[in-house]
Design brief:
This protein is of the alpha+beta class. The protein has helices at 216-245, 268-275, 308-311, 470-483, 522-525, 545-553, and strands at residues 131-134, 143-146, 279-285, 290-297, 303-306, 319-324, 329-338, 343-348, 370-375, 383-398, 409-416, 428-430, 436-443, 465-469, 488-490, 504-505, 533-537, 540-541, 560-567, 570-577, 579-581. It starts with 130 loop residues before the first strand and ends with a strand.
């Protein structure tokens, strides 16, 4: 279907040398005002025809196919004489691209217009085996000559301008702009894969779109994030379940091991451990009333010290039951009691293994010393509370139910903030060595103006508790055990308890009509007279009659005292020796 290829170019001829590459088209830039194009008629419009069309009238071979008109050269160059082609010689064929696609050929048209006057039209040489190729944009393509072997000839060989020399403009043609390789023109290389936006040969299918490149790093990162989220969710769920249910198995609560170690002797626990076996709870029943109180063991003979107001309801025909900390219970009887000191001694029979509680020295106690109170508040046996010594020598009075003053107790008390409540009466107040320094006797409740634990209000503790000093309690207990009664120290005068001034004033007459100063008594011997005002005892101020009684009761019969007196506005001092009386 094709003539023999003289160059032996596959696939049309025998194996032989490859044909040279088609020319590189280099269109020039179009100026802003445009480039003049020769007019063409409708009949001259190029269009595609069959591959083997008639040759152009000019006699030149067109690189775009047989029969296509060859435009005039862009630059004039002198024509070279060429020998005529041999008869029967094959005509040169257009070059094929790398895809072996025949070059499209234009349909035969009318001969092109002759060049302007004075510009000779160059014809390709014939008979020499030389093929001329053109370059351009379809307006003025330059001519490139090739020899018989297919190698391009230098420009000088066929009259083309030498590279680097500016082209000679054609007469009458509009001015054009010359651009170099880097001035924005495009190059066409048919042997190279088409670029984006570049023109492709007619009939060449477009290349398939490139497959999107998968980002392996992004895939790995996404997988790692998903794995982390999954692991976090699983771990959170397991942790929440373990936290709520205590584990994956059965619930077992943590617990500290038993403490086998002891406690320090001066700690509250150590003090309680040492004192509790010696503390007892008393339940008293009488004909008209009953009550509960506390006491502590004095000796192994079963003597127990408590408050007078605790055992008072039993009277002469009542019943007293004693309960020990170990649970033992025994009956008790009253050995002696004294309302003025608010102390009583009872004794149990047939009880072995008694542990007497050690007695301390209340005179050596200092404010701020730690103390522990033990008792049965509201019948809650073996209750332990702790506090300190808040004050010393607090003059308090308790009792007074009878109204005649015979049941009033006068106490030069120790004040403590250890909680004391009804039922603590008669219990021990111990120091840091578990030694008794006081007998808990009274509180000042929030709903009363004061009084004994049983005689006053039944309100709870507000941190104001009072205890009889153990030094006084020891002396009274010994008197009660040995004699069954207590001898009270006296000065032999009658006091005016209604006196509102500062100090204790001696009455002008006694209640029974006798002399206010007992003749031959301690006061008379010291020179005290009616209406004298006693302001001090051993240098300590006295503000009322109650305080004077409390100061005297804190001593024993036979003790010497220095009294400061105020008579007719003048101060004087009197020395006296305390007497004794069995009357409360």
């Amino acid at each position: 279907m094709h003539p023999q290829d003289p160059y032996g170019t596959p696939p049309y001829g025998d194996p032989g040398p490859w044909a040279p590459a088609p020319p590189v088209q280099r269109p020039t830039a179009t100026p802003a005002h445009g480039t003049g194009v020769p007019p063409q008629s409708a009949g001259n419009a190029p269009h595609h025809t069959a591959p083997h069309a008639a040759a152009p009238p000019s006699g030149r071979q067109s690189p775009y196919g047989t029969g296509a008109p060859v435009p005039p050269p862009q630059q004039p160059f002198p024509a070279q004489p060429q020998p005529p082609a041999a008869p029967g010689a094959p005509q040169p064929q257009p070059y094929a691209d790398s895809a072996r696609t025949p070059m499209p050929q234009a349909e035969p048209t009318a001969p092109h217009d002759p060049p302007p006057h004075g510009t000779p039209e160059t014809t390709p040489p014939t008979g020499t085996g030389t093929t001329l190729l053109t370059k351009g944009d379809g307006a003025q393509p330059p001519v490139v000559a090739h020899d018989a072997s297919g190698a391009p000839l230098p420009p000088e060989a066929h009259g083309a301008p030498h590279p680097g020399q500016p082209p000679v403009p054609q007469p009458g043609a509009p001015a054009t702009h010359q651009q170099g390789e880097g001035s924005g023109h495009w190059q066409y290389d048919p042997w190279r894969a088409p670029q984006h936006g570049a023109a492709m040969p007619l009939g060449t299918p477009p290349p398939p779109p490139a497959a999107p490149r998968r980002n392996r790093r992004g895939v790995l990162a996404a997988g790692a994030v998903a794995l982390a989220l999954l692991a976090g969710g699983i771990g959170g769920g397991v942790g929440a379940y373990i936290e709520r249910n205590g584990g994956l198995g059965s619930i077992e609560l943590p617990q500290a091991t038993g403490d086998q170690g002891g406690r320090k002797p001066d700690s509250v626990a150590g003090i309680a451990q040492a004192a509790l076996p010696s503390v007892v709870t008393l339940h008293v029943r009488g004909n008209a009333e009953q009550g509960t109180g506390t006491g502590f063991v004095l000796d192994k003979q079963g003597h127990i010290l408590t408050n007078n107001h605790v055992v008072e309801p039993a009277g002469t025909g009542g019943e007293i039951s004693v309960s020990f900390s170990g649970g033992e219970t025994a009956k008790a009887k009253v050995i002696g009691r004294d309302g003025g000191y608010d102390l009583a001694v009872v004794q149990v029979q047939g009880v072995s293994g008694l542990r007497p509680l050690a007695l301390g020295d209340s005179d050596s106690v200092r404010v701020g010393d730690p103390v522990v109170a033990i008792g049965a508040p509201y019948d809650l046996a073996n209750t332990v509370t702790a506090g300190i010594i808040s004050a010393k020598q607090r003059p308090i009075t308790a009792g007074g139910k009878k109204g005649d003053g015979s049941d009033v107790s006068y106490v030069d008390a120790l004040q403590t903030d250890a909680p004391i409540n009804p039922g603590n009466s008669g219990g021990p107040l111990v120091d840091s060595r578990a030694r008794v320094i006081g007998i808990n006797s009274a509180i000042r409740a929030a709903d009363s103006s004061g009084g004994g634990l049983e005689g006053g209000g039944q309100g709870g503790s507000i941190g104001l508790g009072f205890a009889i000093p153990i030094n006084q309690g020891k002396w009274v207990a010994e008197q009660l055990i040995n004699k069954g009664k207590v001898m009270h120290p006296v000065i032999g005068v009658t006091l005016e308890m209604e006196y509102a001034g500062d100090g204790a004033r001696v009455s002008s007459r006694s209640k029974d009509g006798g002399a206010p100063v007992t003749p031959g008594g301690p006061g008379a011997k010291a020179g005290i007279q009616p209406r004298d005002v006693i302001t001090k005892v051993d240098g300590q101020p006295v503000h009322s009659g109650e305080e004077l009684i409390i100061k005297i009761r804190s001593h024993r019969p036979g003790d010497r005292l220095a009294l400061t007196l105020l008579r007719a506005g003048k101060e004087r001092t009197a020395q006296l020796t305390l007497g004794a009386s069995s009357r409360e």
